[in-house]
């Protein structure tokens, strides 16, 4: 039980990778990348959890109360921004690909090879 | 590679990777037992030193404010990238495909737009005292604004999402963050040093430069998300005509 | 002097924001000026920083958050001479790219300048940073700017495919880095490299540390395009506009190697101390394989930029092999090689851009003989190629020679011939292309080359003298790297500092002194006779292979199946690339799991 969150993180990462590797649609691929990224949030936040700890917000809460890790939360915040930006770029590229090739299947747009 | 080969090789490799993950996670302290010296230190000193009750905001905008500068620019660059990638090639004549039919939806929705933007602004403003912050609030503001498109039509949304007006605002947010950091350099302090006094705990006047950085990032995030949404919506409504 | 370090990053970022903000308001000329001035100013600042860092490590804590009893509270920049020198190279190449782009990209590509400037600033931030998560942030920023710049020509499928492959593989690499960071943080409770190094060195490395190291290294190797994470690079660099390729090939790929070296030297070398050779050996082998694959693949290309892309992979492999030797002499050689390679390859990409602009093609066979009347272009191309091949005391020779010395000192005499061979292979490809295009030698068709890739030339109106001038500066600078007085001792000393974990940690966390030898002699580094011989043989070999490539005999068809297999691996399909990424990470992790315990 105490290692389940980490196992979830590992599983989500691998299933996201599988999605990216076998995807037939660029939009689906972009979202699988997001899924893989979610595994990093899960890992980060699980690493920072303190049993019985409150949120690291001390308004109305006595200083020195046990709180969870605020550092990993700030790391996750940055992580989310990165995820959004990459998603936006890949979707924009996907739209352009559709405009240029009338398909969004990554297996069919391999113009550069060898 | 054929699909089958690809799947077989991938599954083999993934098994290996899963084994590595398992081996690594076995070395982690059990869930709930995390105790990290960095976190412990910051949880105890952030309030006395910075008078900000939201420790995460203090970390994001002060202790590790430099990371946030990079993050701001990631958002800024991605928006610039999307605008570059979706730049008008040749566009078909616009057909208005975006009008909502339901009056009830329009009535309720427009009210929600105002509420959404207000909540977003509140999240930004009080973000360093209670949960929230520039990023969270900025996204909420943008989401509220985009709601306007979904509950009415494109011409109502257009003034808000007009890219020409938003570009300088977004650049102001990102640039403003860097400028605030550089201003500290001028007064002989290290880059991004907190210039103003800490103020009083739990009020809006606390945290020194944190409120300003907070607002700079809130403005930038809101503007960036609005530009992104409007670029994609415009692409949907006026798809680029390609020569094939 | 500590204010220099943040400015090296802030100035290009601010210039980029300024160019973007003034987009609809300011005239194009003003935006160009801001871009060029911003990057030139960054170059000057980086040189000043280099001078300051030579005397003692320049340390700046952002926000003024100094460490408390050895616990880092904020983020720091710890600048050593190698890092500052790299910043100067980054800024210089970016400035050259912006100047080149003034006339090469006449389409009012407003945000293009912004992206280049932001990329420059973030690369500088990456090499200067002393915090593990900060490294990740700058890595992602560089990558994001890169994706958009690669897909610049949105009307054609090729650039979009290249940009997508680039984006997907590099993003996954970034996620692996982040997972590694999470694991390291869980163990040490720190994000500062020096603090992590101190914390990890106290006990034997277990599964968590080994896997975290694997993930971080593999993520950086994706960026550095090392086999088997390298497939995306040829697709991306073949289609980006030439000045963008120049910046990418010259410095952006090398960032990945800097990341590997930095993270190993500061954070993990203490933990793996006794088994260091296990880490180094795997990196050495990955480097050698990459160098050979890059060399062979460059020989079978006809698109000049794709050929240069494989040449980049080849030299990255040589550099990684140098890092894998884990000695300061080798690392100094890597730094010298990085400098020469960045300048020479940059110049070659710019020449390719000029060929595209003036002759409307960038394909070796289509250009056959058509550039006979352009002696200046020919001169630039051959100068760049010679600088890359590295005959004695030319261009890349110094770097190669220092790596050779280090290998010899470690008793690994089989390393040198392999690395020189790989360099000769990619050099041969470039010589062959030059001979065919500028001298008209060789057949009009070649079966063993990969299929043609069409590329649309830029709109007419490029100012060739300006383009040529910029290229000439880079090419000549690349040529003379080996004979710059004092470079050899300085990179050697800089590398020794880079690898010194204990002094770094003392200085960063406790303010201990970190000075070392200055007043180094301004002499040309002495290299061994062995290296001279290897260099001469490699040059002759390159000429021979180029000649054979121009008129391949029938008997060469024996290697056809092997070549075809290798080409088929580079399929252009991103799903395949992701599979190889997974395989690579699993294998690297598996090898280290066995050898590092």
Features of the shown structure:
heterotrimer; A: 114 residues; mainly alpha; Helix Hairpins; 3 helices; 0% strand; elongated; C: 597 residues; 22 helices
What does this structure look like?
The complex is a heterotrimer of chains A (114), B (244) and C (597). Chain A has 114 residues and is mainly α. Chain A has one domain (4-49, 67-108): Helix Hairpins. Chain A has helices at residues 4-22, 26-47, 70-101. Chain A is elongated and about 60 Å long. Chain B is mainly alpha-helical and 244 residues long. Chain B has one domain (35-237). The longest helix of chain B has 28 residues, at 210-237. Chain B starts with a helix and ends in a 7-residue tail after the last helix. Chain C has helices spanning 4-21, 28-55, 81-104, 110-128, 132-150, 157-188, 193-200, 207-224, 231-239, 242-268, 276-299, 304-324, 328-359, 375-389, 397-409, 415-439, 464-479, 487-499, 501-510, 529-550, 560-569, 574-595, and strands at 58-61, 76-79. In chain C, strands 1-2 form a two-stranded antiparallel ribbon. In chain C, helix 8 runs antiparallel to helix 22. The two termini of chain C are 43 Å apart. The model of chain C has no long low-confidence stretch (mean pLDDT 89). Classes of the chains: A mainly alpha (114), B mainly alpha (244), C mainly alpha (597). Chains in contact: A-B, A-C, B-C. At the A-C interface, helix 1, helix 2 and helix 3 of A face helix 5, helix 6, helix 9 and helix 22 of C.
Number of strands of chain B: 0
**How many beta strands in the DSSP annotation of chain A?**
0
Mean pLDDT of chain A: 89
**Biggest sheet statistics of chain B:** none
Q: On the 0-100 scale, what is the average pLDDT of chain B?
A: 79
Roughly what fraction of the amino acids of chain A lie in strands?
A: under 5%
Oligomeric grouping of the chains? heterotrimer
Termini gap of chain B: 28 Å
Shape of chain A: elongated
Beta-strand fraction estimate of chain B: under 5%
Helix tally of chain A? 3
Helix content of chain A: 55-70%
What's the CATH C level of chain A? Mainly Alpha
Task: Give the termini separation of chain A.
Answer: 48 Å
* Low-confidence runs of chain A: none
* Count of distinct structural domains of chain A: 1
Class by helix and strand content of chain A?
mainly alpha
Largest interface: B-C, 71 and 82 residues
Structural class of chain B: mainly alpha
């Amino acid at each position: 039980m105490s290692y389940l969150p980490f196992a979830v993180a590992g599983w989500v990462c691998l299933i996201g990778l599988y999605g990216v590797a076998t995807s037939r649609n660029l939009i689906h691929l972009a979202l699988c990348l997001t899924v893989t990224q979610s595994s990093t949030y899960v890992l980060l936040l699980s690493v920072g959890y303190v049993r019985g700890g409150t949120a690291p917000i001390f308004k109305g809460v006595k200083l020195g109360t046990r709180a969870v890790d605020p550092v990993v939360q700030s790391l996750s915040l940055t992580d989310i921004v990165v995820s959004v930006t990459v998603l936006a770029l890949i979707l924009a590229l996907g739209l352009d690909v559709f405009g240029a090739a009338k398909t969004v299947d990554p297996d069919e747009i391999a113009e550069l090879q060898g | 590679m054929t699909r089958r080969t690809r799947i077989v090789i991938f599954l083999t490799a993934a098994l290996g990777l899963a084994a590595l993950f398992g081996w690594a996670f076995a070395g982690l302290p059990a869930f709930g037992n995390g105790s990290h010296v960095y976190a412990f230190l910051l949880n105890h000193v952030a309030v006395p030193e910075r008078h900000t009750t939201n420790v995460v905001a203090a970390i994001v905008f002060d202790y590790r404010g430099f990371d946030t500068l990079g993050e701001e620019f990631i958002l800024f660059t991605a928006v610039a990238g999307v605008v570059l990638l979706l730049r008008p090639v040749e566009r078909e004549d616009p057909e208005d495909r975006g009008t909502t039919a339901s009056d009830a939806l329009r009535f309720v929705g427009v009210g929600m737009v105002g509420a959404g933007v207000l909540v977003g602004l509140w999240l930004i403003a009080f973000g360093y005292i209670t949960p929230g912050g520039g990023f969270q609030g900025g996204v909420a503001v943008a989401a509220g604004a985009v709601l306007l498109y979904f509950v009415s039509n494109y011409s109502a949304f257009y003034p808000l999402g007009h890219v020409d007006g938003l570009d300088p605002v977004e650049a102001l947010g990102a640039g403003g963050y860097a400028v605030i950091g550089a201003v500290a350099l001028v007064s002989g302090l290290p880059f991004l040093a907190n210039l103003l006094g800490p103020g009083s705990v739990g009020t809006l006047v606390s945290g020194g430069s944190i409120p300003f950085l907070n607002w700079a990032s809130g403005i930038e995030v809101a503007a960036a998300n609005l530009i992104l949404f409007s670029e994609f919506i415009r692409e949907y409504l006026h798809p680029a005509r390609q020569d094939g | 002097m500590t204010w220099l370090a943040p400015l090296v990053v802030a100035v290009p970022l601010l210039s980029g924001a300024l160019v973007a903000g003034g987009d609809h308001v300011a005239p194009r000329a003003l935006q160009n000026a801001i871009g060029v001035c911003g990057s030139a100013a960054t170059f000057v600042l980086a040189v000043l920083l280099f001078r300051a860092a030579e005397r003692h490590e320049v340390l700046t804590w952002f926000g003024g958050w100094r460490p408390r009893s050895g616990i880092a509270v904020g983020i720091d920049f710890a600048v050593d001479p190698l890092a500052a020198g790299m910043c100067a190279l980054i800024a210089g190449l970016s400035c050259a790219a912006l100047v080149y782009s003034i006339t090469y990209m006449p389409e009012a590509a407003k945000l293009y300048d912004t992206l280049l400037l932001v990329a420059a600033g973030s690369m500088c931030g990456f090499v200067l940073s002393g915090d593990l998560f900060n490294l990740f942030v700058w890595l992602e920023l560089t990558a994001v700017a890169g994706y958009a710049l690669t897909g610049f020509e949105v009307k054609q499928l090729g650039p979009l495919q290249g940009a997508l492959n680039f984006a997907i593989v590099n993003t996954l690499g970034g996620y692996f880095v982040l997972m590694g960071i999470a694991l390291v943080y869980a163990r040490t409770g720190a994000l500062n490299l020096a603090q992590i190094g101190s914390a990890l060195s106290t006990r034997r490395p277990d599964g968590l540390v080994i896997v975290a190291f694997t993930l971080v290294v593999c993520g950086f190797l994706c960026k550095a395009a090392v086999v088997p994470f390298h497939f995306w690079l040829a697709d991306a660099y073949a289609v980006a506009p030439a000045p963008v390729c120049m910046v990418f090939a010259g410095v952006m790929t090398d960032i990945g190697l800097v990341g590997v070296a930095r993270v190993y030297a500061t954070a993990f070398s203490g933990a793996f101390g006794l088994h260091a050779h296990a880490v180094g050996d795997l990196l050495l082998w990955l480097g050698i394989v990459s160098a050979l694959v890059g060399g062979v693949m460059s020989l079978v290309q006809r698109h000049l930029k794709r050929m240069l892309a494989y040449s980049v992979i080849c030299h990255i492999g040589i550099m990684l092999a140098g890092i894998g030797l884990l000695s300061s002499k080798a690392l100094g050689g890597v730094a010298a090689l990085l400098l020469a390679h960045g300048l020479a390859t940059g110049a070659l990409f710019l020449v390719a851009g000029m060929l595209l602009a003036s002759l409307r093609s960038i394909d070796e066979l289509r250009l056959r003989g058509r550039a006979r009347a352009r002696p200046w272009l020919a001169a630039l191309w051959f100068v760049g190629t010679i600088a890359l091949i590295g005959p004695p005391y030319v261009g890349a020779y110094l770097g190669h020679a220092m790596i050779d010395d280090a290998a010899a000192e470690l008793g690994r005499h089989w390393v040198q011939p392999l690395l020189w061979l790989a360099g000769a292979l990619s050099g041969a490809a470039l010589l062959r292309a030059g001979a065919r295009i500028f001298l008209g030698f060789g057949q009009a068709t070649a079966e063993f080359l990969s299929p043609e890739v069409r590329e649309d030339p830029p709109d007419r109106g490029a100012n060739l003298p300006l383009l040529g001038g910029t290229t000439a500066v880079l090419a000549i600078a690349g040529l003379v790297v080996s004979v710059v007085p004092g470079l050899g001792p300085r990179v050697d000393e800089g590398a020794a500092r880079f690898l010194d974990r204990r002094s770094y940690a003392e200085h960063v966390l406790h303010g201990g002194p970190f000075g070392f030898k200055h007043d180094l002699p301004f002499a040309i580094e002495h290299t061994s006779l062995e290296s001279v011989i290897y260099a001469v043989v490699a040059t002759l070999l390159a000429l021979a292979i180029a000649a054979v490539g121009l008129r391949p005999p029938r008997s060469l068809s024996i290697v056809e199946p092997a070549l075809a297999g290798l080409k088929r691996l580079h399929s252009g399909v991103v799903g395949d690339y992701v599979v190889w990424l997974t395989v690579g990470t699993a294998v690297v992790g598996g090898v280290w799991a066995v050898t590092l315990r």
